[in-house]
């Protein structure tokens, strides 16, 4: 769920822009400058992944994958997510331009937390990586929903009802997100384990593909 | 309801009117959205295979004042003005802002189908406010509340509805401006303007690159899903679908990572040293600054009007 324009108080939208800007600069410092073009290409893949809908009963949910982004990209995830959200806002109007900072916080902070958690607890066996990946996928979505609720509540007690509904709407997403993250990470652990180790480090011997 | 009801104006209505007030608009809106989505999609659909090498967000050629406006002035003005609209509190001001945005749309002569697509993208989020806030805002003195058929717990607060409608109006006013901001100059020129405004050049290049590969991967994802459908895969609720989608995602990531190396090598082989050549010569004319000043003055005037009692 992306916050659109006009919802947040102006102080909150400017404040979250400032915090996001700081985190983006930190994230960019953690990314080697010659890796940036590669990060841009990977961001495009995450962007496309977030457009995929998965059926859930009568409706369908689309993935937000903060957990996967964090697990694969580590500290570069915030930069990647900021970039992805900017594009989503520019191209599809998913998330308003004035709410870009708030949306980046909502998705990027969980991604950073997930990346740290995944690298700390991933172990070495593919099944354990899949399990931790699932935890990270579900946990990242919980965190994103909580940040969304907190941001909405900054508008005052009039917004409590909407914040509660937004939290409730995330419950199916949390389940799907956890399952998909576990299975995707399991897939990557079997097919290309290097991705889960280094993220953007060059994959040696993979020049042709 | 803890608070005394005597400070709140209560209007009693029979229960069926609740259905009329909430259900009917929802149904009508849903039908309109469905129809508009189809229309907008048909209008924006390109004939045949699109050329993936050219980003589609290219500004349309045009010779309106917005096309001629210096791109730096345009970015700063529209961004600052959007924040001003966010600060609006009252409905009449928000409606005036919508009027102004429509005027800009007419002047900039942008594609209405694309504007429509943008509006449709925010409908879901805004509808959540319109549906939830009237029933959940806490009661305050002087509120008017509609109670349906003696259901005391279900009260429709006019203040909540008004608040949600104001939010919706602000969102629409800003969303209408996005197409004039982006479609009146080619994307590389807009990004060049950004970098001239002090944004690191790398950001603009990353946006351009992701934008280009976004289209490549969308194409790739579509091909992969066509392949899955040909082999008999259908999306259903269940673990099998989730498993298939997870493998799909994993494959997309593996392919994208493998592509990054080749893309980067190809860029370096063509002499990439951290920057792209500049797209256009930017010149700041006095009339650009006057335009920016005029627009922002209107924004300030709106805010002043908004804060005054009415």
TrEMBL record, chain A:
Its main location: membrane. The gene is cbiM. Keywords: Cell membrane, Membrane, Transmembrane, Transmembrane helix, Transport. NCBIfam families: PRK06265.1-5. PANTHER family: METAL TRANSPORT PROTEIN HI_1621-RELATED. This is Cobalt transporter CbiM. Gene3D superfamilies: 1.10.1760.20. GO terms for cellular component: plasma membrane. It is a multi-pass membrane protein. GO terms for biological process: transition metal ion transport. The chain crosses the membrane at residues 6-27, 39-57, 63-87, 94-118, 130-153, 165-189. It is found in: Cell membrane. It comes from Desulfosarcina ovata subsp. ovata. InterPro entries: CbiM/NikMN. The keyword Transferase does not apply.
Automatic annotation (TrEMBL), chain B:
It is a multi-pass membrane protein. It holds the Pfam family CbiQ. It is found in: Cell membrane. The chain crosses the membrane at residues 15-36, 94-113, 119-139, 160-178, 198-217, 238-257, 289-305. Coiled coil: none annotated. One of its GO terms (biological process) is cobalt ion transport. GO terms for cellular component: ATP-binding cassette (ABC) transporter complex. Keywords: Cell membrane, Membrane, Transmembrane, Transmembrane helix. This is Cobalt ECF transporter T component CbiQ. It comes from Desulfosarcina ovata subsp. ovata. The lineage of its organism: Bacteria, Pseudomonadati, Thermodesulfobacteriota, Desulfobacteria, Desulfobacterales.
């Amino acid at each position: 769920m992306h916050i659109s324009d006009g919802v947040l108080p102006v102080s909150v939208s400017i404040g979250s822009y400032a915090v996001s800007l700081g985190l983006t600069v930190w994230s960019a410092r953690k990314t080697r400058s010659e890796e940036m073009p590669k990060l841009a290409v990977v961001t495009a893949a995450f962007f496309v992944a977030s457009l995929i809908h998965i059926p859930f009963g009568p409706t369908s949910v689309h993935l937000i994958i903060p957990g996967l982004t964090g697990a694969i990209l580590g500290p570069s995830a915030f930069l990647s997510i900021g970039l992805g959200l900017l594009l989503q806002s520019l191209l599809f109007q998913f998330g308003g331009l004035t709410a870009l900072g708030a949306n980046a916080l909502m998705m990027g902070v969980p991604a950073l937390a997930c990346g740290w958690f995944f690298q700390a607890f991933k172990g070495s066996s593919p099944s354990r990586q899949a399990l931790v990946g699932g935890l990270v996928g579900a946990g990242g979505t919980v965190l994103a929903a909580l940040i969304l609720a907190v941001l909405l509540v900054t508008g005052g007690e009039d917004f409590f009802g909407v914040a509660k509904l937004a939290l409730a709407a995330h419950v199916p997403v949390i389940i799907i997100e956890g399952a998909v993250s576990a299975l995707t990470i399991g897939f990557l652990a079997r097919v290309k384990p290097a991705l889960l180790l280094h993220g953007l480090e060059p994959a040696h011997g993979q020049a042709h593909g | 309801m803890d608070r005394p009801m005597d400070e709140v104006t209560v209007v009693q209505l029979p229960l069926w009117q609740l259905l009329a007030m909430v259900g009917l608009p929802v149904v009508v809106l849903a039908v309109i959205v469905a129809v508009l989505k189809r229309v907008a999609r048909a209008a924006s659909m390109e004939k045949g295979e699109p050329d993936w090498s050219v980003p589609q967000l290219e500004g349309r050629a045009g010779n309106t004042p917005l096309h001629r406006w210096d791109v730096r002035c345009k970015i700063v003005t529209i961004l600052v003005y959007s924040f001003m609209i966010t600060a609006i509190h009252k409905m009449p001001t928000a409606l005036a802002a919508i009027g102004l945005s429509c005027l800009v749309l007419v002047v900039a002569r942008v594609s209405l189908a694309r504007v429509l697509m943008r509006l449709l993208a925010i409908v879901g989020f805004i509808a959540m406010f319109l549906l939830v806030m009237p029933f959940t805002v806490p009661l305050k003195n002087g509120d008017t509340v509609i109670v349906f058929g003696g259901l005391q717990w279900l009260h429709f607060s006019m203040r909540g509805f008004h608040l949600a409608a104001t939010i919706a109006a602000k969102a629409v006013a800003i969303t209408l401006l996005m197409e004039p901001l982006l479609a009146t100059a080619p994307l590389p020129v807009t990004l060049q303007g950004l970098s001239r405004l002090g944004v690191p050049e790398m950001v603009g290049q990353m946006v351009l690159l992701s934008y280009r590969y976004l289209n490549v991967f969308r194409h790739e994802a579509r091909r992969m899903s066509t392949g899955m459908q040909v082999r008999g895969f259908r999306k259903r609720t269940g673990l099998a679908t989730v498993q298939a989608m997870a493998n799909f995602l994993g494959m997309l990531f593996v392919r994208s990572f493998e592509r990054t190396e080749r893309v980067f090598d190809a860029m370096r082989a063509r002499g990439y040293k951290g920057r792209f050549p500049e797209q256009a010569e930017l010149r700041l004319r006095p009339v650009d600054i006057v335009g920016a000043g005029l627009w922002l003055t209107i924004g300030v005037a709106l805010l002043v009007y908004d804060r005054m009692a009415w």
